[in-house]
Structure formats: C-alpha cells, structure tokens
Amino acid sequence: MPGFRTRRMSRWLAAALALPLVISATSAASAASTASTVSDSTAAASALPTAVVTMGDSFISGEAGRWQGNSLTNSGSRDGTDRAWTGAGYDPRRVYGDTSVNGCHRSDSAPVSALAGRADVLVNLACSGARTENVFRTAHGGKAYRGEAPQADRLAAVAATHDIELIALSVGGNDLGFTEIITACAKDYIIWYSYCHDDQQPVVDARIGPAMAGVGKAVDEIRAVMSAAGQAPSSYRIVLQSYPSPLPRGAENRYSESGWDRVTTGGCPFWDGDSDWARDQLVPQLADRLRGVATAKGTGFLDLRGAFQGREVCASASRQVTATRPASAATSEWVRWIDSDGTQGPVQESMHPNHFGQLALGRCLALAHAASTTRHACRNTPGAGTSGMYLAPLS
Hints:
With 395 residues, the protein is an alpha/beta fold. It is built from twelve helices and seven strands. It has a seven-stranded mixed β-sheet, sandwiched between helices. α6 (151-159) runs parallel beside α9. It is globular and about 60 Å long.
C-alpha cells in the first residue's frame, strides 16, 4: 500500500498534504449617435472569439486528474489507474502538461474541459493550492503564486481578446486551511487516538469570516477586470462553486474504524466521528457561507457538497481497482486517497477529485452553463457513471 506502511509513519507526519451601459438621449441626433456607437461596440464584441474561464484552486484546476480510481499495485500502470504511465515509465506531463513542473496541476480532465464546443476557447487559470489573494489583481493586494501572476491579472489578458461568457470560481478552501485540518485529523487517528473535530471546529469558525471576505473580494476583482475590458455585467456570468466532500460518513465507510485497514488499505485514516463532522458539518458550513457570498455579490452558485455521495474515498458503494476489477466511473472511487509518502505520485494530489471526479464536476459545470437559472445543487445517480450527474434546485 502506497504511503501507509508503519515504518513510513514518520515520513507521513513530515509531509504536508499539498490539500453598464447608460444611454442618455437629449435629442434625436444624439440618440442616433449613441445608437450607432452601441451598435458598433456590440458588433466588435461579437467578432471576438468566445471563452469560458475557470479560476481558483485545486478543486477546479484539475489536481489529481492523473488518477482514475485507486489501486494497491505500485508498479506499471497501477492496474490502469495511472494515466501518466507511458509503458516504460511515468510522465505527469501527459496529464498536467507544463504545469506538472510548477505544481498548478491543470489536468486534461479539469472541469472546464467538459465545455468543449460551447465556446471557442477554454481557459484554465486555476492553480492547486491557490488562496483568494492569488486571485486579486496585483494593484489590489494580489500575490503571484507558483511563479504565475495573480489570476485576475491574467484574466485581464483573456478579456482583452475574447468575449467571455462564463467564469467559474472555486476558492476559499485554502484560506480556511483544508490541508492543515486534514493533517490534524489524520494524526489524531494514527497517533493520538482522539477526535479532531472538537479542536478544529473553533479553528474553522475563526477563519471562515476572513476567508469569505476574501472570496467576496475575488468576485469584485473579477468584475473590475471585466468592466475595464468593456464587458458589461449582463454579457457574462460568474458561477461560484462549493466543494464536494472527499470523505464518506462513518457508517458509509467500507473499512472498520478499528484496526489499520483505513490506513494500510483504504488511505482514509479518519475516525467515524471526524468523518461525520467533515461530511455533515464542515463541508455544509463552507457551502452555506459560499452561497451567502454568491447571494451578496449577485453571482450564480453551484453547490457540490453532495456531488460525490457514495463515490468518496473508502465509500462502501465504491471499490478500489484491481487486476480483475478495472477502473470504471460506475464503480471506482472519485477521490484520490492519501498517499502520504508519495509512493505513487506527489503527496499534494491526496484528497482531491481524481479523473472520474473531475469529469463529474465538469458535467455539473456544463449543466450549469446550459441552465436558464443560476443556483443549483449537483448530484450523482447511484450506480451510474459521470454522465449520471444532474442538477437539483436549491431550497
């Protein structure tokens, strides 16, 4: 099992889970002149190639898209789960392209890929590990990340040459400290034999206000960029999305909470109580607050909290891939397990939507793009593959 051998526990502990147009007419002549200007502007805009843009963090950049399910086999193609396998070795560029080097990990199956054919250009500006400050424009406090300029500055370059139809944003989780929370909970299972939710909930409560303020500012920065490029608010949509739970509830975990199967086999070292907290309190708390930001800022909202129900790592309704049980979107897990010492790839891929998970999230985004309304929850159909994703109205 990659990363879960007892003799490698110390390495696990050292590893960081790298987790308006205003028209005023005073005379017939001025009205005609204004109309002519508007017509020319509209014609110019329509002549630009269209684009869909995704921005934010790892849950939309494509982190962990290298993997289609999880397998205990550490060699070769890892039972067909490792898409970086060349037949003679491993080349992450096959999945992440040049971003395999800087760690942004924009995979070929990132959610934006599902909108192929719906716009002339698909642009993925998101980067694994990004915080809200990495979205802001440099002039407004934005910070470069992994050698790349702030995402709003890069959006400006796209908006100058493209008619942007949709901007999907996933951000806030790293401001909240997801990686630190996951690490604390795993340590409490492996080492301290105690729950993490009792001490992590106050941390979340203290951080979530500033994190949501950052998300709100990120939306404002995107709007400012679009306005500066001459693109009116009515000409494009912003969709803010929440996060899917990577963990099942304790009762829905296929491995017993006693013993070491969750560590050595499943890659999900969490107590039932902590899993329940993460699935039914932490993820919903963040989703509800993100929905609040979307409402306050007048953006669309895509609620993904239950999108992976039954597809999470170690979920009883899913299975690991083996030599006799091939990778399948209908039966395999949609989340990358915790590979604590990087036996099968970078540790930062852990606990992210894998190839199947990203195809599912892409289906959600495509459905939201085509929908006439702007607020939805996205869910999966039990026993179906990623094509079984569907939108449900938010209450």
